């Protein structure tokens, strides 16, 4: 242009009038961002989108391919377009940035971009800063910035935190997305096998009963029965430790307890007078009530049969043996059978404390079976996702806690307070103080140790206040997203049982008359 005139930019129907200097700056930025080669690829991708969609309503496009014509020359056109996309140095479809926009009859420069975002972009090129509109999704705003060639670090500080927080949340949500996609693919595979025949169909049907309580009435019945056995198993374990559910040993059990030494205690059972004898007293011991023992046998039998069936009918064997809950089931059964083996080898171990008590302690792992009852509930999965997403923060908090424990434990010991007999004893006090529990079993008694205790308590509060909200935020983020995901699943199920309007549109559009290219 010989004379400087304003340039009118039409942004999807919304017109903006800018100076020629501003337009040249924008155009230069577009050229640096896209360039001849990148612009060619952008235009080629647009052509591919046009080839894959119905363009009968877009009269301003020069390319028109209706459904009948696609069947003839679509392959050749697509091959030409893909050649542009696959050749890095190709310039067949563009030589400058003019292919990013169109010039209308009125002389406007027409861009098919978001009209609400362009004022922000225009403000940046006019040196007024880059602010993200509150009504615009950060992801869409990022796409616009990439198109106009603006780096994310150019965003104003007042908006940058919201921009970064959005993409941080998206990275965190990838955990949920990946897991849900894997579960969805698994479910599709099961449904595909159920429609078949033979062993694979039987395997899929039985696995649905064992794994998906909502799949059928039989699956619900199995779920309730399994729940009863889990509750009974844990109740028997807990009740067996209370004196109400214990009884004295009978004669046969005393025989098992003493073994070859039974003759030394025989006088306690044959009615002999023990007042003038040197018979040693009976040890204080008891055993579980009989019905608890029978309940244990029944539950162990049920869980053994269940585990065998799950292994046989699981369509994904490798994943089965990598699942935490399945490993818990296997370990819990191994503990129970190890206990029976130990008791068979040495019956006395059933009635007294010994080194084999560690086997009995491991029975507590059966409590983890409760997780199987709730593993299909979204709230439980959200909690697991939150823990997984917050693993780094939890590790960081643990490291700070250990460092603070070492530091304040040593300070408390060297303060001269006799309450702290050693540094390891002071460690216990430091942990209890920093976590604001304060049992009161150990506490400072002199001025210097009290000062250390005050600083220790304040440090612990600040540490927890900084780290815990991260976990809470992740939980709320996952929970909110899970609601959206759950709604989408429900809509998908509804669509499966109804006629798709898109399918109806495609069928009806295929009957349209062929478009005349001369019009």
Keywords:
519 residues; mainly alpha; Potassium Channel Kv1.1, Chain A; Four Helix Bundle (Hemerythrin (Met), subunit A); Helix Hairpins; two-stranded antiparallel sheet; disordered C terminus
Describe this structure in words.
The protein is mostly helical. The protein has three domains: 166 residues, Potassium Channel Kv1.1, Chain A (2-Layer Sandwich), CATH 3.30.710.10; 139 residues, Voltage-gated potassium channels. Chain C (Four Helix Bundle (Hemerythrin (Met), subunit A), Up-down Bundle), CATH 1.20.120; 120 residues, Orthogonal Bundle (Helix Hairpins), CATH 1.10.287. The protein is built from 18 helices and six strands. It has a four-stranded mixed β-sheet. Helix 7 runs antiparallel to helix 9. The longest helix is centred in the last third of the chain and has 50 residues. The C terminus is likely disordered.
How would you summarize what this structure contains?
This protein has helices at residues 20-51, 67-86, 118-125, 138-148, 157-194, 199-211, 217-239, 251-258, 290-313, 317-320, 324-345, 357-361, 370-374, 378-389, 391-414, 423-434, 447-496, 501-509, and strands at 7-11, 14-18, 102-103, 109-111, 246-247, 287-288. By secondary structure, it is mostly helical. It has a four-stranded mixed beta sheet with strand order 2-1-4-3. The chain has a two-stranded antiparallel sheet with strand order 5-6.
Q: Give the % helix.
A: 55-70%
Query: What is the mean predicted local confidence, pLDDT?
Result: 76
Number of helices: 18
Topology-level CATH name of the largest domain: Potassium Channel Kv1.1, Chain A
CATH class of the largest domain: Alpha Beta
Order of helices and strands: EEHHEEHHHHHEHEHHHHHHHHHH
